[in-house]
Amino acid sequence: MDTVFTKLQILPSYAAGFTFIWDVSNSLADPAPWKFTVQEAPSSDGPWEAISPELVNVTAWSDTLVRSVTKDFVLFFRVVLVTPSNTYYSFIKTPYGDLNRREYLIVRDIMRREVLQQDDMSGVNGRLWIRATSGPKCTNCIDPFTGNVSVANCKLCLGVGRLPPYFGPFPVWITFTPTRRNMELKPDGIGLDQPYNWDIRMVGFPYAKDNDIALDIASDKRYIIDGVDHELEIRRIPVIQILYVKELPVSDPFYKWDTAAAGEEGCVLL
């Protein structure tokens, strides 16, 4: 089948094994559920073997398998997407396509040290929810003529327009800066507001972007991302990210979503 995958990256996992991140074309309109599987083979011709569980509506996964890889041994990977309508295969990739073996090990060690420091003292246990830009369109709020979201607080997609509206949750260690307040115009353009703002520091997996949601497990507070900087990159691969966040008001539709139930299906373990 023709591939609908637009990206497949294989990056270091700070524990062991590899981290896989992929994207699917936002023009794919197959109905839900979308079921992904990461496969491995000793050559580009196979035989292919699944190394991940069935990942429902998830676009990233890390394995923890410690492989005895010799200097001349090369593995090949691909991702398979199965929908109720079709089956799609990503392009085939080796683990050192973006980073050579030496750089790969350096990145993994930097991430490992960062997580150890956060685990020891500076960080808190969190979850990251990636706002969907691809996936089946919402059947409840999408206008059939314009293709736009017609219900801002839709109970199914939370106004995102995709099902599911968020991918995840991805377990992460996050470090908050001290609280600060900035004067800014209110969303309706009338009057000024002083929302609380923070910077969040975390490793480069998973990639974060504007409008993703970070969750502090201890307080159960949710934060919307309003900008991302890469504090450290190697070969253009983000190793350390800085996320600029604001606390979501409790009136936000995301608070109405059962994140615990959603996580049972979409959780990715690092």
Contiguous low-pLDDT stretches (5 residues minimum) are 260-270
* Backbone CA Rg: 20 Å
Following the backbone from N to C, one meets helices and strands in this order, namely EEEEEEEEHEEEEEEEEEH
Number of helices: 2
How much is the average pLDDT?
82
- Give the number of DSSP strands: 17
Strand neighbour order, sheet with most strands:
9-10-14-17-16-15
Description of the molecule:
The structure is a single chain. The chain is mainly β. It folds into two domains: 5-108, Sandwich (Immunoglobulin-like); 115-266, no CATH class. The chain has two helices and 17 strands. The protein has helices at 101-122, 259-266, and strands at 5-12, 18-24, 35-41, 49-50, 55-56, 60-62, 76-82, 87-89, 124-131, 166-176, 180-181, 184-185, 192-193, 196-203, 213-216, 221-234, 237-247. The strands form four sheets. The protein has a six-stranded antiparallel beta barrel with strand order 9-10-14-17-16-15. Strands 3, 4, 5, 7 and 8 form a five-stranded antiparallel sheet that branches. A hairpin with a 4-residue loop joins β7 (76-82) and β8. The longest helix has 22 residues, at 101-122. It is flat and about 60 Å long.
Question: Can you give me a brief rundown of this structure?
Answer:
The chain has 2 helices and 17 strands. With 270 residues, it is mainly beta.
Core attributes:
5-stranded antiparallel sheet, Immunoglobulin-like, single chain, 17 strands, flat, 270 residues, mainly beta
